[in-house]
Amino acid sequence: LAFLMPAAIFFSMSYIVHISITIIIGVGSYFSSRIIKKISAIKVVMYLDTLKKILISLWILLIPLVFIVLLIGGGPKPNLWGGFLLNILLASVAVVAGFPLGILMAIGRSTKLPVIKTACTLYIETIRGAPLVAWLLLAWFVLPKFLPNFYGLSEISVVIRAMIVLSFFASAYIAEVIRGGLQSIPKGQLEAADALNLSYFNKMRIIILPQAIKVVIPAIVSTFIGIFKDTSLVFILALTDLLQVGRIIPEQDPKFFGKQIEALLVVASLFWIVSVALSNLSSKIEKNLGIGTR
User: What is this structure's pTM?
Assistant: First the structure.
């Protein structure tokens, strides 16, 4: 849909040729995967499983590699990043950095130590108590004042500041989701862990957290989807994300004058595709883990 819609909207021959090639490659890849799947049912299952794990690992490492190449590979400055890649990078950094921080905040808020519990509660409620737009503006005007002038930290780009704010914002919401999972763990599980004489760290790592995260996987993925869609708010920091591109092109390119609705429909379709892909991934994980089945 994301490839067919631009061709149907803009009727540009060069675009249609590129889109047709992309569709041909996609169709070829699909049928190739179907053939490989049939082969895997007959033989070389072990090798294909290994190849599948390698491909998954490469997809996971793709975003960090792109980020590193852009930073140290002589690519454009972070302030010049834009388009759909900017949304993907912002969301990926926010999820990767916010998820472990959210777990720590959830454990801290669930602990019986008053100092740690109070600090984590203040952190979570403070961040959740203000809209993301306010925190982004805070990052633009106020954050550089708090950063030390050490190796140019006080002059970091707006993109890095947006990544920091989105990571903290995501961690606060993820913390509450994880805390709900921790509260759903039966008391007998805690007593069993104590009976095994496990330390607090091992008890959380081996018994409590895996069960808590398993219960709240749908809510976690929903939070990830929300963070991804919230990256469109970075336009207030003068960053040209995908939504901003969809607004600017019909105003500046003569070929697309008067086609604001069509351009925004393409943008919406791209966001929709990523959201549906994440939802399907969540459903697949739930199915593999047996969530909701007896």
Answer: 0.73
